Amino acid sequence: MTGDLSFRAGLKDVLPTVFGYIGVGLAFGVVAHTAGIAWWLVALMSLIVYGGSVQFVLATMLAAASPISAMLVSAILINSRMSLMSMTVAPYIKEESLLQNIMIGTLLTDETFALSMNKVNYTDHKLKPAWFHAANVGAYLVWMLATVAGALLGGLIANSNAFGLDFAAVAMFIGLLYLQMIGDRSKPLGRQAQVVVIVIAMMYVLMRFFPGATAMLIATILGCLIGMGVERTHG
Amino acid sequence: MANSYVLMTILACGFALWLLKVVPLILAKAFRFPRPLVQFLSFVPIAIFAAIIAENLFVYHPGAWPGINWENLLAAVPAVITAVVSKSLLAVVIVGVVAMALIRLLGWG
After folding, report:
1. For a Cys-Cys bond, which of A33, A83, A134, B69 suits A154, CB 3.0-4.6 Å?
2. How many domains does chain B contain in total?
3. Where are the bilayer-spanning segments (chain A) (predicted)?
């Protein structure tokens, strides 16, 4: 990653996330196909709902003929962390027009959020719409195409996990976490490592009581509060 | 499964998730974030990445302590080493995927 904030640089920077989208997207397409969702509805879901874990849960709940209200609550719970992410991005694009803000927010994902937070370590804490749109739209199209491919190939891919592609997204977040820790010079490495260890430990305890997505939200909020507390006492 | 049922679900959830992402940005244009909030948000990236990774290392069992996802934990080791050595996101992803494929091939998971 470099300090270049052009559209081209955005396309280049989003490349490592593409493997994750293809792996998870194919898997989702297969699951949706198995749940009996038509391929064009898979495409629409990827374009309109656009959220990895939410879409998996929806496919499962649709197959079980769940009420729409229940699916709505689940979707909001799973994705409420997105509000934290867009709030974190907000100061970097505050000077851009409202329309640009809305367009960037609309296509924001875990992955492009992560990329943008890494990017600012190279750009003197600046982000540009051109770079953000390239990363966002690249991710959006790859996700949609991968899910449709999965839905169409459906029965043909007996085990879409066989190649290890499903691990691409996890590997990417491991890389992003490490790069973030060494890249963000505003905080000592030790304090960041402290927050990471605390969040992982809290996740273990929280997942005793809550499903993963809810645990993630609580652990993130507590982790930020603890980081803040440490920063305040140590200056 | 009725297509209209799926379509309604897509529209309802899509709209709610869009609001989750866009409303904070609109509020941020109108108001200045107070300092404590800015400080809180500065920890969001590492806290969220750590939470996402942890969620993939543990397996949720309703009403019991989480299990360990050994496959993911094993594949995470070469991924972490590659991150430290190469500092390249693409290299981490490729090594992680290859490691996972090998783990499954060898039946270690």
Report:
1. A33
2. 1
3. 20-44, 56-78, 137-157, 163-182, 189-207
Q: How do residues A69-114 score in pLDDT, each as one tens digit?
A: 989 988 998 898 899 999 999 999 999 999 999 999 999 999 999 9
Residue B55 lies in a domain: no
- A101, A143, A176: which to substitute to probe chain B, counting the most B Cβ within 10 Å? A176
Angle, CA B7 vertex, CA A150 and CA A32 arms, to 5°? 25
Residues near A180 by Cβ (< 8 Å), separated by ≥ 6? A114, A117, A118, A121, A192, B45, B46, B49
Tokens of B67: 């299990």
Q: Which of B7, B13, B43 sits opposite A228 (nearest CB)?
A: B43
Contacts with B88 from chain A: Cβ below 8 Å: 175
Q: Which domain holds residue B13?
A: 1-31
Q: In A, which residues are within 8 Å of B87 by CB distance?
A: 178-179, 182
> Is the CB of B54 less than 8 angstroms away from the CB of A199?
yes
Reported ipTM: the value is 0.91
What CA–CA distance (Å, rounded) separates B59 from A211? 9
Position B42 in a domain:
no
